[in-house]
Amino acid sequence: MRLSELSNSQTGLITRVHGRGAFRRRITEMGFIKGKNVEVIRNAPLQDPVEYRIMGYHVSLRRSEAYLVEVIPGEEYRVETAPPLTVQEEGDDGPAAGNGGRIINVALVGNPNSGKTSLFNHASGSHERTGNYSGVTIAAREASVRHNGYTIKIVDLPGTYSVSEYTPEELFVRTQILDQKPDVVINVVDASNLERNLYLTTQLMEMNVRVIIALNMYDELVRAGSVLDYTLLGRMLGIPIIPTVAVKGTGIPDLLSRTVDVFEGRDKSARPVRIGYGQTIEDSVQTLRNEIVRGIVLPSGISPRYLSIKLLENDKGAADLLRGYGYSTSLQEVAERVKGRLEKQLGEEPGTAITDARYGFIAGALAETLTGGPGHRAKGRRDPDFWLTHKIWGFPVFLLFLFIMFQTTFVAGSYPMEWIEAGVSRISLLAGSIIPAGSLHDLVVDGIIAGVGGVIVFLPNILILFFFISLMEDTGYMARVSFIMDKLMHRIGLHGKSFIPLLMGFGCNVPAIMATRTLENHKDRVMTMLISPFMSCSARLPVYVLIISAFFEKRQGLVLFSIYIAGIVLAVIVALLLKKTVFAGKDVPFVMELPPYRIPSMRSTTKHMWFNAKQYLHKMGSIILVASVIIWALSYYPRMEQGTASERLENSYIGRVGHFIEPVVQPLGFDWKLGVSLVTGLAAKEIVVSTMGVLYQGDDTDSVDEGGLSARLRGEEHTSGRLQGEKVFTPFVAYGFMLFILIYFPCVAVIAAIRKESNVRWALFSMFYTTALAWLVAFIVNQTGNLIN
Ligand code: GDP
Ligand code: MG
């Protein structure tokens, strides 16, 4: 019987895993191996994917993939899977002793969600993002701490389930370990999910690095009523184990002290231990190892045993690495032969047998040290998932959540916004009265204060939005959202996991594009990158807020919501087109962990908000300030002595640019000032509002008038062309303008991110197709408006 045929809450015993290559590798690494029990938890609302429980944690698989796993159905099987624990002392290639220096380079390695970033933040006092789903850390971050006279340099690496070559993160982590050669690797292990977390540990044990385990989430292990003899476990693994609670900082000083001990070679429990793979595999490893040692001079620190095992696992990265050191074709042939012979002897892929053996080693070690099985999660109605991924309630709850998020952003944000607005105009008046009339006066009041002030008022909205996003990340709801969305995402050619970068896009598209690294294949990554800019980022929010409060009196939240929805609809259409054309091809497996729900700590949420606020203010202080001044200068010179303010503007450089592009934006109902705002928005979307603040100054000499920018926009009339004298903004033009802002050229930073994550071609493509699409959509909206009126 196949796993996909089991019904809800049925259990099965895995007898075989079909399929080959990457899929099989991934699924076995996640714990789907012969002899394990699986329980069906529930189906996603659209029946696909399905949530399973294996090794005490939850994971989702698509039905088509579950079909590849063969099971015997039945009640909880009790199988003794643990093969004899084969622990031997390693003789030859142990890690070299500490060099006695005063700096220790430490790398944090561990499964996604094991608490690496929390540990990193606590140890170093920094404010990296944490989140309760995989893929929050996307690049290595470094910080230093002083401890016991040493400077400990800590690198926070992305989360991985293994160090094979399945995802870019895994490769990245492996390269970091092999190339950067950290003095000590701190393996962060989630104590509430030991069996699967230790899989990575078994791989680290083979990599000839000094490892120390931070047994994190120790509080959860205790709460579940389990008892772990971690000292004994540490002795079995040859790795010192220190329990920690990273969010509270418990155990971190201990961890650092032990790190120093291990570095200095003082720690007795740190010793090389070798996992035995059984006679058959060991013979092949030995043969290969001898061949490698004979034919190649490896740099110190890279273990030939490790490489031999990797070659047997069919690991391309290992072959590439070896090639760098003179891996000849004859050696390659030997490797192929050994592998082929082994496969025949075992009757299965050597990679699978090796994974099985590692899990066997872990099961054996845990059998002797862990008592009181893994804590069960809440069941039935008390389980949040009963509601949040419910087949009927799942989607409405999610939509409601989104709606509340946007409504709150708008309504609760409007109060502090008024205060800041009042503050800005006070400062403007004050500065205006102190500085004598002249260019400097105009630069400060009309350029700097009007430009930066126009943007800073949106800080509260942005904080609220980030608050909600961080809430979703920290609780674990984000992963559920990918779970319920997978079927839909799959239909447009994407993966449930793509939904997370897309959601992050609502905050800022730059991290969203970087977060596509968690996607396991190139096609998914590029497609997600291309459509993620349609997720309206927080920088565009100021434009919407301005336009909506000026032109839409009723149902403001709903109008805002509709813009966001429009972005999503467009993303779907574009994805479908891409799927049919450029990316017609095959899928990758959907294996995703569903972490337990966690109550976010106030500390981490506020930290998250503060971090984003800081970034926003930083952007304001740099790019927006510079752009405001440039735009002001372009609109100030050449200086005309006579005429009203708006006549002077029209004659300025920027007025000329605006008029130059006017024919292009006229069919959209935009005037030249809007055209200019769009041009300046190429740098960053926040600048659109500050440009408008500078351009729509009104004709009075007092540059900051009482009604604010919205009132000035409402009064604005066309100053030239066919429509001269008519109001610029009809609701249709206003709406079309918001859509244009939503769709066109994301911003310089995003384009740079796309180029970095894929290539120049995709970056250019994304620049042009978005702008063309924006024009088309705004054109349709405006023409519809003309027809109706
Ligand atoms: P990373 O993916 O390994 O970087 O993990 P994070 O640092 O982002 O943490 C994942 C989640 O686990 C966050 O929601 C943390 O607040 C939470 N967390 C981290 N360490 C602990 C811990 O020791 N105990 C508990 N209960 N939760 C933790
Ligand atoms: Mg992290």
Q: Which geometry do the CA atoms define?
A: elongated
Write out the strand line-up for the largest beta sheet, numbering strands in chain order: 5-1-2-3-4-16
Bound small molecules, by name, code or SMILES, are: guanosine-5'-diphosphate, magnesium ion
Average pLDDT over all residues = 82
Gap from first CA to last CA: 65 Å
- What is the alpha-carbon Rg in Å? 30 Å
What's the number of extended β-strand segments? Answer: 16
Structural class: alpha/beta
Low-pLDDT ranges? 77-100, 134-138, 701-706
Helix content: 55-70%
Largest sheet: 6 strands, antiparallel
User: How many helix segments?
Assistant: 32
Strand content: 5-15%
Which key phrases capture this entry?
binds magnesium ion, 6-stranded mixed β-sheet, 10% strand, single chain, binds guanosine-5'-diphosphate, alpha/beta, elongated, 32 helices
Explain this structure to me?
- This protein has 789 residues and is α/β, with parallel strands linked by helices.
- It is 55% helix and 10% strand.
- It has 32 helices and 16 strands.
- A six-stranded antiparallel sheet has the order 5-1-2-3-4-16. The protein has a six-stranded mixed sheet with strand order 8-9-7-10-11-13, with helices on both faces. A two-stranded antiparallel ribbon has the order 6-14.
- Strand 3 and strand 4 (57-61) form a beta hairpin.
- Helix 9 (279-295) runs antiparallel to helix 12 and helix 22 packs across helix 29.
- It is elongated, with a radius of gyration of 30 Å.
- It starts with 10 loop residues before the first strand and ends with a helix.
- Bound molecules: guanosine-5'-diphosphate (GDP) and magnesium ion (MG).
- The site of guanosine-5'-diphosphate has 24 residues, from helix 3 and helix 6.
